[in-house]
Structures
1.
Amino acid sequence: MTSSIVLKAWMGLTGLFLTAFLVVHMAGNLQLFLPEALARPSYNAYSEALTSSIVIRAAGWITYTAIVLHAVLSAVLTLRHRAARRGYAVERPATSSRWYARSMGVLGAVTLAFVVLHMQSFWYRYHWGEIGVDASGNKDLYTVVVTAFCEPWIVVVYVLSMGALAFHLQHGIAAALRSLGVFSGRITRGAPRVSMWVAWGVAGAFAAMPVYIYAAFGGHAP
């Protein structure tokens, strides 16, 4: 159960699960592109539904567990890989691999740091911070999000972080399929392209949200 092959399979499973979570999370957050009069009640009601459903809350804790497990597995496999390379007089990076394939650890660390910032800014504040309510009595998370995205430095951090996420997903999805043994035949030829479209589609949508809000509000919080 602790062999590298098994650990890579678990890492692939957790990675694909987190990718599915990102797709669902991105779809829900597309409401931010609506006009303010529609986006505020819709987004706040959506946020309230996510926190009031025991099923969604359970799924949330599974997601947090998957994030931690994915990070731990990545660290373990990286250390094993380095240990296996000891003793070689010369170590050269694989010139046939993409730079982001050789930088998954760095890209993953950037993504993890972003997740911590994101949860502190929104998840933690929603549950334990001081937030006003909208006309329907729901916590006004929409105003919190808009206020944050009217800060230029936050917009820049989000866009750069989504770039790191896109490259991480582009290689990670294909690697996960390979680790799970489904990377063969027609899938071998199509998976890299699918990975690219999923990675940049999800990350691009997330990156566009703060840019759109900053432009829509002219950098001035409501």
2.
Amino acid sequence: MHTGSTTEHTERKPGRTAGGTADLSAQLRGMWAAVAGSWGDQAAYLDARGAVVGERMLELSRPQPGERVLELACGPGGLGLAAARRVAPGGQVVLSDVVAEMTSIAATRAAALGLGNVTTCELDLERIDQPDGSYDVVLCREGLMLVPDPARAAREIWRVLRPGGRAALAVWGPRDRNPWLGAMFDAVSAQVGAPVPPPGIPGPFSLHDAGRLAGLLGEAGLSDVSVKEVSVPLRAASFEDWWSRGSTLAGPLARRLASLPPDAVEAIRAHARAAVSVYEAAGGLEIPGVALLAGGRRADAPRTC
């Protein structure tokens, strides 16, 4: 894992050893590296899927010409690429992810668009290897919820912001209000008799509580913290369209499905098909989804760690 360049926090969560944290981080890296190819193949779809939340994040953080922007957990980099246009001329955007396989995809996309103000690097949210106060804006869409210690990651986001800098983050809301993904997880859990994601693995709904999310950001030192719900239904042309994308893009799900025999996978598909049949609409499926959009800024006064 990367080491913070200036500020290093050494506290651990109760019951979690340094070795255990390292093992979990390595496991998570491997999981996301394994699905990076699918994320690259589906980059245009992911841009469209995240367009509403991404636009709201940019409105909230207000990147301006000449400013420096860091996108964390960038995946194919669609959000940061949109920010790059807003900070031109004179501004810069750094697209980062915990695995190089993702940043390679983002770099290729930036080059194809001719965005000369975009660079990429591999960064860990919990130890952001960048100097203190080096960014005007930090963006993180659907990443904070997937780290073992989100409180530490929030402190790191505060640290790399300049005084007056803005952060905009998005995570998924409650599982029962996001059946577009929850139905897949539930179908796998019913078949294997164990929860998905497994205990100890941070999952997409781990920060579903708006109060907890606001608390994490406030305790990290951010001021003017706000958390709002954003409706983000998923529309798919068919069950097959929904299933094929979701089952290859969701890291914990893709790994689990790959380990199962074909008959078990078919049973899971049947369970999932029944669950989402209630969302059939003209032209396919329209499945509810809710994201939490959070923002805050680093106050001018230094924070005492």
3.
Amino acid sequence: MSLNLHQRRAIIALALTALPLTFSLAACGSAPSDASPGTSSTPAPNTAGTTRAPQSTTPAPSAQATVQPAPVGGAANASIPAATITFRVLPDQSKATFRVREQLARLPAPSDAVGSTGAVAGQLVLRPDSSIVAESSKITVDLSSLKTDEPQRDNFIKRNTLQTAQYPTAEFVPVQATGLPSPLPESGTAAFKLTGKMTIHGVTKDLTWDVNARRAGPSLTGTATTSFRFEDFGMRPPQVAVVLSVVDEIRLEVSLVAQQVA
């Protein structure tokens, strides 16, 4: 079919009019085809100078898992004081004395056989509340150094009664002080009972002493008395020709002079 000049010009003009519409449709069709429906392809804005930390895939620990155990030695041990007070016995100033009632053949009335020694050593360790640290406290008396007014009596007692060759010392380990003021005063006097373990002649027994003590700052002085029978510690009363009778009771007295060292 042949077109005249006017028809050819009309077709060219129509083509030129439709060309911009074709480019516009092509540009719209160039968007990524794998975008999920309903999801915007516009990237989220990023704040300048800020780096976003990567997200961890590990679940956060529970509240129970983050609880730390309580430290050992906390409130449960708060009642036990760390500080202690140590009084060291001064041997040259302290003395242990025994008394036994006897009837001598040459005397008309009973009298006391008295022996003593200054060989006293040891220490007493207290807490500020006046309780005793038993594992650190001990008083020791050297029985082989006991002396009376009769050398013959001394030899007999050491050889036969006390048997000092085998059991040379007497030891007392204090455990409890009943009636001692708490807290321990810096100075003043006190009367109390001191209970502990007494070892004589290889035998250990519970023994209680009556104590009168005085503290003046670092100085401690006191007198402690007690009594027991010979047989309580596996001993027999002395039996010799010049002694008519012996009362089965030993009375002990310890005069202590001590100095605070800690």
